[in-house]
Every structure is written in structure tokens, then in C-alpha cells.
Design goal:
mainly alpha; disordered N terminus
Length: about 240
């Protein structure tokens, strides 16, 4: 009997003694749906009328950091899917661009040495598609988001004055996110003021828009489209 292998909707047959089904799981949408959930939880805490304890503040910070981390993880996961399984991998076996997949797969190890956003650029270049404008949105925000994630992963506790001169901090300040109401005005901007529900919402929106824009350049339906309702986040509040 034929052995059926289901890989994210892609079927192929091989010889075997019985019918089997295998499934390949994609984490891109899971990461973003989770990030959106964390953003909503963070906003609920900011909007509470009750006293915000230290423990609740720690929960809030964890929600925002998780939203940032998983939003970048979604960006990284999706380009890996493209390189290994081919454009259209989410559409099933009939939707995969097999020629593009066969062209990209041998380059996977080389592309792995590049940053996540560079990998998106290189894939478009290799497939002779129009490039994403580095100097415009959503690339600019995606770049800031990735560097914010990196700053959190490799966090170094330094004095506030040392942070003021850093390019990333200046760019984050220009986003003018409203700080959590329970954070003292005298607190350092990074990490205390920037880790707000608006930053969490922006992270989800940035990752979603970047991935969707990439698929526009590929001229393929984005895998995020069916999950739009689950990617709803609180509005971004900015300082006046």
C-alpha cells in the first residue's frame, strides 16, 4: 500500500506496508498569535484600576518581552520555511514553487549565516523578485524590532546615561510609545518605559506587516491571512 506523507498539506507517496500520515508543524502563526495574546494581557494590566503590585508588574514585563521575542521568532521561522520547503509551502503540494524550493534548499546553510532580514532580501534577490525597500516601512520597523529583541536577549545592565547615546534607544524613543502608568517618570527609558503594551502591539503589527509584504513580493498569498482575527492587538498609544 502507498505511504502518504502529509507535510503541511503537501502529499507524496512512497512504498510501504501500510497507510500512514505524517504532519509537519509550522510555528510562524503560533508565534504571532501568542504575541497578540501577550499584548492584550499587558494592556489589561495597564488599564486596571487596582493597585499594581511588584508581582503584577513582573507579569506585565514578561508579557511584553514575550510579545517582542515571539514576533521576531515568527519572522525568523517563516524565512526558514521558505528556504527549506519553498515558496507556497503553506498552500499544499499544488501550491509549492518546486523549482524555487530546489534552487534555494542547497543554499540553506549559507543563508543561515545571514541575519534574518538579510535572508528575506537574499531570497527575493535569488528568485529575481523585486526587493523590499530598506529605507521604508515595514523594513525599518522590522530592523528596529529585531535589534530590540537582540538587546533584550543579550541584556546588559548599564547606567541610564550610557544608554542615551545608543542608536537603538534613540530610534525607540522616536516611536513615542506611552509608558506603562505604573512606571515612575524617573525610571530609565530602557528597559522600563519601552516595555509597554503599545510596544507589544507594535511588535506584532510590525512582524505581520513585514511577512505580508514579503509575500506580496513573491506574489503568493500570505500564510497569516487566515489568522487575521486572532492577530488583533490593542491600539498603539503614543505620547502627545
Amino acid at each position: 500500500m502507498a505511504r502518504v506523507v502529509l507535510l503541511s498539506g503537501c502529499c507524496k507517496a512512497s512504498s510501504g506496508g501500510s497507510a500512514e500520515m505524517d504532519v509537519r508543524y509550522s510555528f510562524t502563526t503560533q508565534f504571532l498569535v501568542g504575541s497578540a495574546m501577550f499584548a492584550r494581557h499587558a494592556r489589561k494590566i495597564e488599564d486596571t484600576t487596582q493597585s499594581v503590585t511588584e508581582e503584577i508588574q513582573a507579569d506585565h514585563r514578561a508579557f511584553v518581552v514575550s510579545a517582542i521575542m515571539q514576533s521576531v521568532a515568527a519572522i525568523e521561522a517563516e524565512i526558514s520555511e521558505i528556504i527549506i520547503h519553498g515558496p507556497g509551502h503553506q498552500l499544499g503540494s499544488n501550491g509549492i514553487d518546486k523549482d524555487a524550493r530546489d534552487f534555494l534548499l542547497p543554499l540553506a546553510n549559507v543563508l543561515d549565516d545571514c541575519s534574518s532580514l538579510e535572508r528575506y532580501e537574499l531570497v527575493l534577490h535569488l528568485l529575481q523578485k523585486s526587493s523590499i525597500d530598506r529605507g521604508a516601512e515595514p523594513f525599518q520597523s522590522a530592523d528596529i524590532l529585531v535589534r530590540l529583541r537582540n538587546a533584550l536577549i543579550h541584556y546588559k545592565s548599564v547606567w541610564g546615561k550610557e544608554l542615551e547615546s545608543k542608536k537603538l534607544i534613540k530610534q525607540l524613543k522616536q516611536l513615542r510609545f506611552e509608558a506603562p502608568p505604573f512606571i515612575s517618570k524617573s525610571s530609565n527609558f530602557f528597559p522600563h518605559k519601552i516595555l509597554c503594551s503599545s510596544c507589544a502591539s507594535w511588535s506584532v503589527t510590525t512582524a505581520k506587516e513585514f511577512i505580508n509584504r514579503f509575500y506580496v513580493h513573491l506574489n503568493i498569498r500570505s500564510p497569516l491571512k487566515p489568522y487575521e482575527s486572532r492577530l488583533t492587538v490593542p491600539e498603539i498609544r503614543r505620547e502627545t
